[in-house]
Amino acid sequence: MRQLLSLYSLRFPRIIIYMLQTSEYRAGPYLRWLWRTGDFSRVSKRGSLKLTNYARLLLIGLVVGIFVELAAGVGLIVVGIVDNMAAYWELGISLMIAYPVIMPNLIVLPLEIGRLYIVEPKQKTKISRASAIFASHPGVKIAVAGSYGKTTMKEVLKTVLSEGKTVAATEANHNVAIEHAKFASRLKGDEQILIIEYGEGAPGDVKRFAANTHPTHGVITGLAPAHLNNYKTMAAVAEDIFSIASYLKAKNIYVNGDSDAVKPYLRDSYIVYGSKGVANWRAVNITVSTKGISFKLKRGHTVIDLNSKLIGRHQVGVLSLAAVLAMELGLTDEQIKAGIAKTAPFEHRMQPYELDGALVIDDTYNGNIDGIKAGTQLLSELKANRKIYVTPGLVEQGSQSEAVHKQMGELIAKAKPDIVVLMRNSVTDYILAGLKDGGYHGETRIETDPLGFYNNLSQFVAEGDLVLMQNDWPDNYA
Amino acid sequence: MNKLKVGVVFGSRSTEHDVSIVTAIASIIKPLQLSGEYEPVPIYIDKSGRWYSDPKLKDISLYSSGQISDFLARQKPIQLSLGGGLKIIKPGLKPKAIKLDVVFPATHGTHGEDGELMGLFELADVPYVGCDMPSSVLAMDKALAKIVTSSQNIPTPEFVWFYAADFAADTQAVVKRVAKLHYPLFVKPVHLGSSIGITKVSQKKDLINAIEVAAHYDNKVIVEEAVANLIEVTVPIIGNDKPVAAYVEQPLLNGDDVFDFDTKYMRGGKGKGSKQTGAQGYSTIPANIDRDLYHRSEQLALDVYAELGCTGIARIDLLIDAKTKSVYFNEVNPLPGSLYAHNWRKAGKSGVQLVSELVELALARHEQNRHKTTVFDTNYLKQY
Fold first, then answer.
1. Which residue in A116, A228, B169, B194 is a FRET match for A414, CA 20 to 30 A apart?
2. What is the CATH number of the domain that holds B192?
3. Confidence at residue B269, expressed as pLDDT on a 0 to 100 scale
4. Of A452, A404, A459, nearest to A424 (Cα)?
5. Are B105 and B125 in a shared domain?
């Protein structure tokens, strides 16, 4: 009954536009979400509609559409009664009842038409112009691809290389073709180094990005099950991400060796980096704490002491690569040390903050199993009064979801947190099974109100506690 | 899983009415709700003593916005049923009764923290959080608490107490009794907390005025000697048979050596822009005193807690003479404002852990008391 009533509530049109907005106005994800939703009153738990001009226009369109449908229904009923034609009034009643089904589906039509005939042709022109800009740009162009860790890698490279060079990089996680085009349009042409992040989402994406941006160097940060709803298999993900190596004819390719999944795709000409170092530079004397990491990069008798505010052993590879690339591009040891010292956690990526005496590590932008490995390893390495691990699980794991989440449960169990907090959703039972298989004996809490938990975290923690929060599920995955 | 229904009683006819609202909503109801194990039922006693219960009473903005009067005007006061546990009954066409599994008193000061509520809960035979009725009565009467603890050789500053009525009837007789004390003195209402009505008196000429202020708030007044070279510390404690202390905390005093209402609740935070409010922004945790003094303070507080028969939770205030290193008992607060959760959090206990533990302690004490015999068969009535 509650589900049925939610279809006819006054908030229903706003919820529909919220779902469209959260799905970034893409028909596929929106329709999948729409069709699997039973109770629309429970959709908007994590956020609410941001009434942008576009959203307002769509909302008005939807409300007008609903009124037109209701008016048509009333009209048909009146005609049916006056002319004594049962089919008319039956159709009228059906129209009036069915508007919550018809209109939310119908609304994607103008969106898709607009996308096909207006947005995409415009974008193609911009991307084509950008391709010419990239092709003629004289700077070193470093492409950063991978299933995870791209933004961190890009930001670390930018921070370190900026100590001695003029560097421009794509912003935040603006990592698709149209964002690359906007980036190209802002370039002055005198930059010495460009860093371009590739955000793969479907087969062929990375190949297209490489063709458009003409990289001279490629960094592959790792492979993990991600976007499997589109890629279907890990092999397809790998094929797309490693297409950057084909573009560069296997030269100047740097691959994260800490990622187990990349190993079958490694070639001799690739330069492997990781927590042990880069090529013949070895990372030694690694110290991990809540304040950051420090280590020495050593080759023969040459030693460089590096200190960063980034957290977690898995960052040693990222920092080592940045240092070695900086050397290759002509930066001095002092510039490299200064650059590495400036690297600090980025928002929601292993970002520590203090909460009433407890240390919270916010890794809620982490969405892959390798990130979970890194996080749980960090949790086991650090000392705390109580260790609390919080996660809803991972999204877009496709057919591997059960296996990935069981592995996740086992990894969490191995880190031995005192409390595990899971957000109730479709993968919770898999994680619980993994915890059980991993022999976890601590306390487990299942939260049904994730937002309530996050907003009141201070009530759950005390001084000396360590809280690791990995990944977050927006409403459209709940 | 059926959640335990925890009635949280707050407000009441007390000068600390508003403090009680914050304690109840922020430090008790919220964490109880978040624990996932309890269902808090808000029970608000308004300033005229009427009892109300409604889920909306859990919202602090109802009080801070001043809409509480309008809201209550639309509500009917609840009734209580004491037979077979405590039930609150919401009147209406079909009265709704809610049986409470546990009660969490969150009132401060008179008509609540002073033992009155605890007597009601004892009669209803319902488990309740915190000190029982006798210890609450003792704790909330500063004079009685000092008399009891002194009898067990627990040091306390020299003091004199009297009824406000006696002072009104024969002021000079009271002044004469006070004359044996050495200035400076503190004049306090006996039953009030949150430092309300307290005056520091340095000269005899100010004494009568200070007593009049205290007598304005209470029917009983205590005058005691001030401790020289003062360091004031406070020790939050929880537990029944095996009480444990949080950190010995050192509040910031105002210019008159008083941790007054304004310092405690109004100034909040260390400087502009601080989000902290209340005592947590104006104290040092742990207290900045030497190790020996720290441990003696902690032990003295635990001794006071035991001697007064406190259970559940209390906060013991102590006075230290920094020169002689003497530690004195000052007073007990059987329901510390906001449960002193900031100190417990520092000591490693989260808000959720604290309230959960307090409910468990209440259930354990009730279970323990249940086995006491309350029936004694005699032939007494047969003679009539």
1. A228
2. 3.30.1490.20
3. 40
4. A452
5. yes
Please indicate if any CB of chain A lies within 8 Å of the CB of B346: yes
Q: Tell me whether residues A456 and B30 touch, CB distance under 8 A.
A: yes
In this structure, CATH architecture of domain A351-477: Alpha-Beta Complex (3.90)
Q: How many domains does chain B have?
A: 3
Record: contact B352-A459, CB cut-off 8 A: yes
Q: Which of B209, B225, B241 is the last residue of a domain?
A: B225
Residue (of A166, A174, A172, A165) closest to A130 by Cα position = A174
Is the Cα dihedral B44, B102, A454, A226 positive or negative?
Answer: negative
> Per the CB < 8 Å rule, is A458 touching B351?
yes
| Of the listed ranges A438-452, B4-18, B139-153, B260-274, the one predicted with least confidence | B260-274
Partner A contacted by B277 (CB < 8 A): no
Residues B218, B249, single domain; the answer is: no
- Residue that finishes a domain, picked among B189, B204, B225: B225
Do both B221 and B251 map to the same domain? no
* Cβ contact B27:B8 at 8 Å: no
Residue B74: which CATH number? 3.40.50.20
Does residue B262 sit in the same domain as residue B208?
A: no
- Residue B215 counted as domain residue: yes
Does residue B249 sit in the same domain as residue B356?
yes
* Total-model pTM: 0.79
Contact B36 A463 (CB under 8 A): no
Cross-chain Cβ contact A445/B350 below 8 Å:
no
Cβ-defined contact of A357 to B30 (cutoff 8 Å): no
A contacts of B340 (beta carbons < 8 Å) = none
pLDDT at A448 (0 to 100): 86
The predicted pLDDT at position B276 comes to 44
Please report the number of interchain residue pairs, chain A to chain B, with beta-carbon separation below 8 angstroms: 40
How far, in Å, CA of B25 to CA of B337, rounded?
Answer: 12
Chain A: closest CA distance from residue B192 (Å): 29
The b/e string for B316-343 (b: 16+ C-beta within 10 A; e otherwise) is bbbbbeeeeebbbbbbbbbbbbbbbbbb
What CATH architecture applies to the domain A132-342?
3-Layer(aba) Sandwich (3.40)
State whether B45 and B101 are in the same domain: yes
- What residues of chain A lie within 8 A of the CB of B348, using their CB? 385-386, 462-465
First to last CA, chain B: 53
Q: Are B101 and B114 part of one and the same domain?
A: yes
Q: Are residues B205 and B293 in the same domain?
A: no
Q: How far is A419 from chain B (nearest CA, A)?
A: 13
Pairing mode, strands A281-289 and A292-299: antiparallel
Which residue ranges of chain A lie beneath pLDDT 70? 46, 474-478
- Interface touch B351/A452, C-beta < 8 Å: no
Q: Which of A445, A452, A462 sits opposite B345 (nearest CB)?
A: A462
Tokens of B228: 């020289």
Nearest-CA distance B279 → chain A (Å): 14
Beta strands, E only, B147-205: 159-163, 185-189, 199-201
- The boundaries of the domain holding residue B48 are 4-130
ipTM of the complex as predicted: 0.80
Domain ranges in chain A are: 2-106, 132-342, 351-477
Partner-chain contact B347 A463, CB within 8 Å: yes
Other Cβ atoms less than 10 A from the Cβ of B238: the count is 24
CB-based contact (8 Å) between B322 and chain A?
no
